[in-house]
Write a structure and sequence with these properties.
Shape: globular
Strand content: 25-35%
Distance between the termini: 60 Å
Number of helices: 8
Number of strands: 20
Helix content: 10-25%
CATH superfamily of the largest domain: Probable inorganic polyphosphate/atp-NAD kinase, domain 1
Order of helices and strands: EHEHHEHEHEEHEEEEEEEHEEEEEEEH
Structural class: alpha+beta
CATH architecture of the largest domain: 3-Layer(aba) Sandwich
Length: about 325
């Protein structure tokens, strides 16, 4: 039996109603819905008047397969995410390891990762069930954290960005930047941001970094409020590796944050190494919309006066 994973923003009533609609459509088409166990627990813990009663019936009476995150990735052919970009990031933690493509239905605000709108939900589900979509791969970051003696502390991945920032708002942190095994600069700053092209429209955009088209296989390093003459964003290729060291003269610690979701304390002498991962995430796209059009739509950019290359009129 075919199985589709559903991942939902459990705090939004509209998302829960949309989830019920998708489950009903899947049942009509003979496709089994799969929901990860922690999402079911979150929904069942909501006040009784929040989730639709029929959705609760689906979840408790065998209408869906309730599995753990590891099993979900192994069972399904595609994931449908109902929420915003934050919900998609959480869903990708389930889907990335198994290479499961994910399609986002936007119920958030700006939302660059989500493609469809909830108003077109029925058409979207029908096309996904018919296999009428294309796969778009997005690069991810591989992050390695080492201690003062270069012993491994932890490994992480991020789709948008990894940020190393000061823990004390009143203090700067001192960092040394290394690119491809060579020192490039050192300075005091609020932090350093490492971003993928996907993240170039997120935190990196707010930090003054360039917008990079998703198909560009690159990584950015952006100093945050650096007290330095040379503190421009750097764009690195796939073969490059960047490292950020918390120098030993730091009295205050820092915080490593990944995609705004996971964080870890950093102390003096620690070293963060970043490179583009060999494992990407896969987004199921219904239409090959030019990225320029997405920029205009999401940021509401003015395009008045554009003539283009169409036939001229006199």
């Amino acid at each position: 039996m075919r199985r589709f994973l559903l991942y939902v923003h459990t705090g939004r009533r509209a998302a829960l109603s949309a989830m019920l609609s998708v489950l009903e459509e899947l049942r009509v088409r003979g496709v089994r819905g799969v929901v990860v166990d922690h999402q079911v627990e979150e929904i069942l813990a909501l006040p009784e008047d929040v989730p639709p009663p029929k959705l609760l019936t689906f979840l408790t009476n065998g209408g869906v397969d309730v599995v753990d995150a590891v099993s979900a990735a192994d069972l399904v052919e595609l994931g449908i995410v109902l929420g915003g970009d934050g919900t998609i990031l959480r869903a990708l933690e389930v889907a990335r390891e198994a290479g499961i493509p994910v399609h986002g239905v936007n119920l958030g605000h700006v939302g660059f990762l989500a493609e469809s709108e909830v108003e077109e939900l029925s058409i979207t589900v029908s096309r996904l069930l018919d296999g009428d979509y294309e796969i778009e791969k997005r690069s991810t970051l591989e992050i390695t954290l080492l201690d003062q003696d270069n012993a491994l502390v932890s490994r992480h991945w991020a789709l948008n960005e990894a940020s190393l920032e000061k823990a004390d708002r009143q203090k700067m942190i001192n960092v040394a930047i290394e690119i491809d095994g060579r020192p490039v600069s050192s300075f005091g700053c609020d932090g350093v941001l490492l971003s993928t092209p996907t993240g170039s429209t997120a935190y990196a955009f707010s930090a003054g970094g360039p917008v990079i088209w998703p198909e560009v296989d690159a990584m950015m390093l952006i100093p945050l409020a650096a007290h330095a003459l040379f503190a421009r964003p750097l764009v690195l290729g796939r073969s490059s590796e960047a490292a950020v060291e918390m120098t030993l003269d730091n009295r205050e610690g820092g915080v490593l944050t990944l995609d705004g979701r996971h964080s870890q304390d950093i102390t003096a002498g620690m070293r963060l190494e970043a490179r583009l991962s060999a494992r990407s995430v896969r987004l199921a796209r219904l239409a090959p919309t030019p990225f320029a059009d997405r920029l205009v739509e999401k940021f509401q950019l003015p395009v008045v006066g554009w003539r283009g290359r169409g036939p001229r009129t006199r």
